[in-house]
Amino acid sequence: MTLQRSGVGWKHVAGLGVSLVIAGQFTGWNYGLASGWANMAIATLLVALLSFGLALCVAELAAARPHAGGLYTYCQDAFGRFTGYMVGMTVFGALAIGTGAAATFISAYCEHVLGFGGFPLKLALIAVIIGVHLRGVGEAMNLLVAAGVISVLAIILVLATLAPHFSPANLLTPELPLEISPLGVFSAIPFAIWLFITVEQTTAASEEVDDPGKNIPRGMIAAVMILLVSALCILLFAVGAGGITHLAAADDPLYAALTSPLLSKSYATVATIVGLGGMFGLLATMFSLAYSASRQLYALAREGHLPKVISRVNRLGAPDLTLMLVGGIAVFASLAPPMSILLAVVLSLSASYIVVLAAFIRLRTVEPDMPRPFRAWGGRGTAAACLVLSVLVFAACFQLDIAMLAGVGAYFIFAIAARLFSRRTEAAPAAAVKETPANV
User: Residue 425: what pLDDT?
Assistant: First the structure.
């Protein structure tokens, strides 16, 4: 059972990478402003370096071994099946619940801009997105890229509108002076990473990409550069025009910047357009998260970590059972507080980064002659630096609430139990065959 190659090129890969992340540029990042603008800016540059280096490393691995399992495949190659499985389940859980959180944010934007939302809208969004993915990767990718382009245009509109109103004085308040402190940077990191997180999950498309040795690296590098430029401009112009106090606690910081009392005139129409753009951005991220999560679980089942039936594909080459499982998890996640979900995603994915970067270093060491159509710039040095940054991100997440940490721990226990159950059910028929009289 294999996935179809469907004419997916580097532009689709770049679109997938941007779409996976773009919602984080509309919401979530601004909570880091509570640590002060300078500390948030430094935290953003640190996680940008992490994201770029990580993208180079996983692009090398994906080009060498295109696989729908993405990160877990490389961890399995380096450290064995159990480690690979746990990384795969960690990534799957983060992406699946992130799909539900994206539905929650879309509902919130829709209620604010259009006047309706709630659970029925979340349910409809999840059903439509899973339905489109069931039609095959080609149609899903085209819609995903279109939604991503619309959301990027919305951000450009925000920046063009706010840039003339920029004032350095708006970047600070008496309570939040323009001072730099290690603790302030550390506190801002879990929020700064929302400007880039999950871009590395584009490797899930490598099995369906034409010429992955060329298109995966080119697409991933393009995605990170687009996101970096966008993130820095948002941090400078949105905060510098709307004011740090006004944006720090807003659920919709770009919309809040356009309606800030600090602006010399009203931009109500532009704010409405940007609100709609934010919905498209979240929709693009929701598409991307559902895509990557379904491929992750499909690959785990196909490799025998989970029951084989989960790796079934429909007549259009889409993994239908994994998509429906992602949809079910997303429905339940959409009922949870979104910030708790988002912070659980950061903790889980940063843990997977640590393992995959260690896997990159190990594979460079023990398999130096493995064919590598693309080689990461800086090699093991880049991976080691990113490994240190990943540990920093992971440690920063432990300033968060106990309930979220307990939930992540419970999920890991479930993942181990699921693998043990799968191994027992697959071993039982084999044992039964050995005990039949005909085989004695």
Answer: 60
Q: For the chain, give the number of residues.
A: 440
Does residue 120 register a pLDDT over 80?
yes
40 and 33 Cβ atoms separated by less than 8 Å: yes
Burial 64-95 (b: 16+ CB within 10 A, else e): bbbbbbbbbbbbbbbbeeebbbbbbbbbbbbb
The 3-class secondary structure across 281-346, one letter per residue, is HHHHHHHHHHHHHHHHHHHHHHCCCCCHHHHCCCCCCCCHHHHHHHHHHHHHHCCCCHHHHHHHHH
Yes or no: say if 323 and 316 are a contact pair by the CB < 8 Å rule.
no
H helix or E strand, kind and range, residue 147:
helix 137-162
Sign of CA dihedral 201, 204, 209, 215: positive
Residue 209's DSSP bridge partners are 8
Using the predicted structure, report yes or no on whether residue 146 has a pLDDT greater than 80. Answer: no
Residue by residue, DSSP assigns 113-143 as HTS--SHHHHHHHHHHHHHHHHT-HHHHHHH
Side chain identity at residue 226, one-letter code: I
pLDDT at residue 173 is higher than 50 = yes
Q: What is the DSSP string of 188-204?
A: HHHHHGGGTTTGGGGGG
- Can you give the pLDDT at residue 426? 55
Q: Is the pLDDT at 428 greater than 50, yes or no?
A: no
- What pLDDT is recorded for position 437? 36
Q: What is the residue extent of each domain of the chain? A: 10-424
**Which letter does DSSP use for residue 28 in this model?**
T
Token pair, residue 246, equals: 């006004």
Region 249-268 average pLDDT: 85
Q: What is the mean pLDDT of the chain?
A: 84
pLDDT of residue 56: 93
**Amino acid present at 191:** F
- Those residues with Cβ within 8 angstroms of residue 348's Cβ, 6 or more apart along the chain or in another chain: 90, 91, 93, 94, 408
- What is the predicted pLDDT for the residue at 440? 27
Structure tokens at 172: 């600070």
The CATH architecture annotation of domain 10-424 reads Up-down Bundle (1.20)
